[in-house]
């Protein structure tokens, strides 16, 4: 790995390792959130899930709202299409995104990692 980060081939492989499933017009995947970070960004992948750093503190749902907004931005969907369906009060969460296929979600995550759109 270079000091600038993983190569695009390594990023693509990492996205392929993200455990994501389709269910009735939605994709579902796991994330691990680190609240209170310097900025909102994709930090990589861990144990089949997407690692996010979120600037908002874990107080009164602020980090959850920021997480939903960030994922909506990266995946190119409305905020109302992104829902936390598990782990609302934990770092490990289950996310459901409506209106996007698994292949399109993978493509957009790969582009975000490779193209520098991994942070807000």
Description:
Residues 1-13 have low confidence and may be disordered. The chain has 120 residues and is of the alpha+beta class. It has helices at residues 8-17, 62-75, 102-115; strands at residues 20-23, 26-35, 41-46, 49-54, 82-86, 92-98. The protein has three helices and six strands, in the order H-E-E-E-E-H-E-E-H.
Can you write the helix and strand succession as a string? Answer: HEEEEHEEH
Helix content: 25-40%
The CATH level-2 architecture is identified as 2-Layer Sandwich
**Separation, N- and C-terminal Cα atoms:** 24 Å
Q: Please outline the major beta sheet.
A: 6 strands, mixed
CATH homologous superfamily heading:
YggU-like
Which terms would index this structure?
single chain, 120 residues, Conserved Hypothetical Protein Mth637, Chain: A, six-stranded mixed β-sheet, globular, disordered N terminus
Write the layout of secondary structure elements.
Layout: H1 8-17, E1 20-23, E2 26-35, E3 41-46, E4 49-54, H2 62-75, E5 82-86, E6 92-98, H3 102-115
Parallel strand pairs: 2-4
Antiparallel strand pairs: 1-2, 2-6, 3-4, 5-6
Helix pairs in contact: 1-3
Characterize this entry briefly:
With 120 residues, the protein is α+β, with helices and mostly antiparallel strands. The protein has helices at 8-17, 62-75, 102-115; strands at residues 20-23, 26-35, 41-46, 49-54, 82-86, 92-98. It has a single domain (8-115), classed as YggU-like (Conserved Hypothetical Protein Mth637, Chain: A, 2-Layer Sandwich), CATH 3.30.1200.10.
């Amino acid at each position: 790995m270079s000091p600038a980060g993983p190569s695009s081939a390594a990023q693509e492989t990492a996205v392929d390792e993200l455990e994501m499933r389709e269910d009735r017009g939605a994709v579902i995947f796991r994330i691990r959130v680190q609240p209170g970070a310097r900025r909102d960004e994709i930090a990589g992948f861990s144990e089949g899930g997407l690692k996010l750093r979120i600037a908002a503190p874990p107080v009164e749902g602020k980090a959850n709202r920021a997480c939903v907004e960030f994922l909506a931005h990266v995946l190119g969907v409305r905020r109302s299409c992104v829902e936390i369906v598990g782990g609302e009060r934990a770092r490990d969460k289950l996310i459901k995104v409506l209106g996007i296929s698994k292949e399109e979600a993978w493509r957009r995550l790969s582009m975000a990692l490779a193209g520098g759109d991994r942070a807000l």
